[in-house]
Amino acid sequence: MTPPRTRTTVPPEQTGFDFDAPPALAQPAATVSPSAADLCQQLTAWSEAGWLRRLDSALAAFVRDTDPQAAPAVLFAVAALAHMEGRGHTCLSLASLVSDAAALLGWPEPARQACEALRATLPPHLPDWVAALRASPAVRDAGRAPDGGQPFVLAGPDAAPRLYLRRYWDHERLVAQQLRERAARSWPVDPTTVRGLLDRLFGSAPQADVAEPDWQRLACAVAVRSGVSVITGGPGTGKTYTAARLLALLFALAEEPDRLRVALAAPTGKAAARLKQSIDTSLQGLAQALDGHLDLPALTQRIGAARTLHALLGARPDTRRMQHDATHPLDVDVLIVDEASMIHLEMMSSLLQALPPSARLILLGDKDQLASVEAGAVLGDLCRDAEAGGYSPETVRYAETAAGQVLPERFHAVHRAPPPLAQQTVMLRQSRRFGGPIGQLARAVNAGDVARVREALGAPGAGAVAAQERATPADVLHLAVHGRPGGEACYRAYLDVMARRPAGSDHEDWVKAALRAFERFRLLCAVREGDWGALGLNRLVERALAQAGLLSPRGEWYVGRPVMVTRNDPALGVFNGDIGLTLPPATPGGALRVWFLDGDQLRSVGVSRLAHVETAFAMTVHKSQGSEFEHTVLVLPPHGGALLNRELVYTGITRAREAFTLMAPQPGLLTQATQQPTYRASGLLDLLRPSRS
Q1: d(Cα 168, Cα 85) in Å, to the nearest integer?
Q2: Which of 81, 182, 259, 261 has the most C-beta neighbours closer than 10 Å?
Q3: Other CB atoms closer than 10 Å to residue 51's CB: what's the count?
């Protein structure tokens, strides 16, 4: 007997469509076909088992309620779409769903069997699914039907159709349109003048017979003439070093450099602070190179503090809308955004809408790092072919004239009409920091080469990298408390600094020393839940430090508690991802405060005002992006499934400056992750192709 059903309300922000008043769908419920009812009941059971989110099955139930004639294939596709959105995809590949739904969903074995059994009862061929979706009043066929406010959109070529939640379809089109328009807009520059300035900023151009071009010079040359540019590269390749020289070049070419409005931003507070510090340091070092041409120190002082993207755009509580948008644009001429791999589709859409058409946008980031937790991998899409170059004959000629760079033929475009954005995308390839064992391991993981990974871990002199594949939680705790042999970075180090609290006026220096000592070491986790996740390890580390007599965790707040902010609070000046330490104030007897360090600047907030924080001995790899630690320990869970992937391990490795340790409870997890690249469904590249209007 089928239990009575209740109507489930799906929040409009999940689809960009108001389900409570859709003119095309709000019809009295009629008799529901048994097959549709059975399928919805099955989806609900999968949600109760944890294989789907409750939202996923609720969305399918809503479609069944509003369209009693909906085919079971439509309901299954809708639930799968919602599930994939929760895993970071902006759309659902119908071809992948039809060919192997169980593999696409990435479920464990019992769930795979149930999925395959259900899939066997649904249409076997892709055209049947497309026809069913086209027949549904809840779905708009973007290539054939008018826009009636439908909550779902069917788009893409017939051979590779994609199903979207409406708001992601809208965001994807807007991002593509904005990027095409900005890439097409060019600033007239004199290549000879650019060449002269680059020689002053970088030194004389290398000889033409040098095997590899100077990609940093090339990035500056191509970016200075475009409305949007992308500079990608791994750790140590000099992305912010290049951006600082590009900024100096823009100042030097401006008719009124003191009127050039520059803004710096990043997805997290930590990344924004590092960007500002790096840009300021680089610009100060360039003052002599441009001496007599412009007052670079004075111009540097005019650049304000780097902000998070949420702060830059004016995020407001309880709404997805930003203060700055197309009708209230940012007051900026040049915007440099670091750690762009972390920008999800909706944030990129908001950013591009708020940026004046006349402003230059410069995106910096590592295309191989983890994408945002939320849907979309915009930088990954934009840099899909960055390694190949794909430069047009006109770009090749300009590079030789303006940058003094001869681009080898392997970087020339193979198509007559290469994508316009490719002409403004440059990949930096030479790492000046990751040339040792850490760099070798990172490159091997990034290439998916398991043999090279094992070779890097076992190579002579590979003491900076290690892997323990039968680790226990006790092994992880030993590293956290005592550090690795021969290394001083661990949590004992910051607690030793705290124990030496000075009397008198040295309180600020003491706080800075404690924060810097804490930032030397970090446990990074692939997951949040469980004994091998961030929450479980935080509890274990806290207990281990207390048992060692290094910490006294009484109550929620205690001296030495490290915390990570989990929600933006512009009024307090704290943002999601900020890391701070709980310490007493300079005045004895005062209330505890959490101290944050941005470059050399300290700021603090009373603990009673911080409602959205969590302990931060361990954090997820996602939350660590934009940070670096002397010794990084990456902890893998025993059952990570699709969460254990190449990008996660690569990102964890590249958070380490001097030492990296991988801890796994069983063998094979590193191999599994190395062989499993991340894929996120998207139609952005198709929309950016020159043939699209």
Answers
A1: 9
A2: 81
A3: 20
